[in-house]
Amino acid sequence: MVTLVPVTAEHVSDLRRIGETPPVRARWGEFGPQWPFDETEVTCYTVLVAGTVRGFVQYGEENDPDYRHAAIDIFLDPEVHGRGIGRDTVRTVARHLLRDRGHHRLVIDPAADNEAAIRCYEAVGFRRVGIMRDYERNPDGSGWHDGVLMDLLVHDLR
C-alpha cells in the first residue's frame, strides 16, 4: 500500500502543505526554514501512496549497546486518515528497524489525547507503557500536554 523513500527536495513542498493542515499543525507545530533537513540525527522518509506524497515518517536510533532502541514519529495527510496507511507505514518502518537495523525495542510517544494514533500503533503491536505527564509543549506554546509512552518488542510486531 505505501512506499517509503528518503526525503528529497522535491518532496518538501508537498510535505509542508500537509504540515500546514490544521490536524498536523496542531500536533507538529510550525516547521522551521530548514525542515526536514535540520535534524541530522534522524532518518526521514516520505510516505508515498500510488506515487503521491501522503506523509512523513522519521526514526532516531540510540546506539549505546546497553540501551539500543529506536524511536518513530509520523504524520499523514488528513485526506488519507482512516485508510490503514498509518498502520502500513508504522509496520513497514518497524520491520526495517527490527529486522534490518537489529533493534529489539522501538518506542513511540503520541499525545495522550491522540486516540486515533494510539489505536494505530496498538494495531501494529505497540503497547502502552505509561503516561508521561506534561511531556511535550503545546505547539502554540500555551502550556504542556501529556504523552503516552508506547513500546514494541521484536516479538510483538503484528
From TrEMBL:
Record-annotated N-acetyltransferase domain positions: 1-155
Superkingdom of the source species: Bacteria
The keyword Transferase appears for this protein: yes
GO terms, molecular function: acyltransferase activity, transferring groups other than amino-acyl groups
CDD domains hit by this protein: NAT_SF
Entry keyword Cell membrane: no
InterPro entries associated with the record: Acyl_CoA_acyltransferase, Bact_Acetyltransf, GNAT_dom
Keywords recorded for this protein, A-Z: Acyltransferase, Transferase
Protein name as catalogued: GNAT family N-acetyltransferase
Protein source organism: Actinophytocola xanthii
Top-level taxonomy: Bacteria, Bacillati, Actinomycetota, Actinomycetes, Pseudonocardiales
